[in-house]
Amino acid sequence: MDTKEKILQVAFNMFLERGYKEVSLKDISDAVGLTKGAFYHHFTSKEDMFRQIVDNYLLAGSDRFYEGCSRSNLKQFMYDYLEELIAYMDKMQQQIYSKSNKSGISYYQILFDALKIFPDFSEKLKEVHQNERKVWEEVINNAKASGEIRKEFNSKHLAKAFISINDGLGMHSMLEGRFEEMHGEIFTMWNTVYSMIKT
Q1: Where are the beta strands (DSSP E) in 42-101?
Q2: Distance in angstroms (rounded) separating the CA atoms of residues 151 and 37
């Protein structure tokens, strides 16, 4: 790992533990073992570093998340999606989150901080959410066309239902420190909806 990446990972973990405002550049420099001058070799400011954390860890790869997922079968898409989610969470747990970060509360605080600090972050999040809904709608429409699921349900509403289950249960699991149970709970609820719409 190069020095810049180490700074980003250490800083992100500190933000998760204590919050963005409570972590100073000195705290980060001391934790990484750098002088402030060495820090400024990689970043122009704490805000610049935070922007790169947001881009690298909160937004990066969102447009590629579905690349490995089946688009022709809704049931398979659900399996593939959760496999991608599990792999992503495992990577974040191993590389970024310390063992003390079980609640997920600071993760959401970081999102709110990003919304306040960066005026364009809201639009980027909206774009991510719109792209996510479009993928789900595509998969649902394909499932209707193939006869996998019934055609009378509104595709946009179904897409929002699947996404809302994922977001809602994901948030509750993080806030309650139940990472291990999150994927199973999401799939159980998805299966409940799927059983109501399948042919």
Answers
A1: none
A2: 62
Whether residue 73 is predicted with pLDDT greater than 90 in this model: the reply is yes
Instruction: Quote the tokens at residue 151.
Output: 């055609």
The model's pLDDT over 33-64, given as tens digits with 9 standing for 90+, comes to 999 889 999 999 999 999 999 988 888 767 67
Query: Token pair for residue 96?
Result: 């970024």
161: left (phi over 0), alpha (psi -120 to 50) or beta: alpha
Query: SS3 of 109, please?
Result: helix
How buried is residue 8: exposed, middle or buried, by Cβ count under 10 Å (0-12/13-18/19+)? buried
For residue 1, give the DSSP letter.
-
Determine the 3-state secondary structure of 30 from DSSP: helix
pTM for the full predicted model:
0.84
Within 10 Å of residue 90's Cβ, how many Cβ atoms?
11
Rg (CA), the chain: 19
b/e 139-164 (16+ beta carbons within 10 angstroms → b): bbbbbbeeebbeeeeebeebbebbee
Region 14-35 average pLDDT = 91
Instruction: Quickly count: other Cβ atoms within 10 Å of residue 71's Cβ.
Output: 15
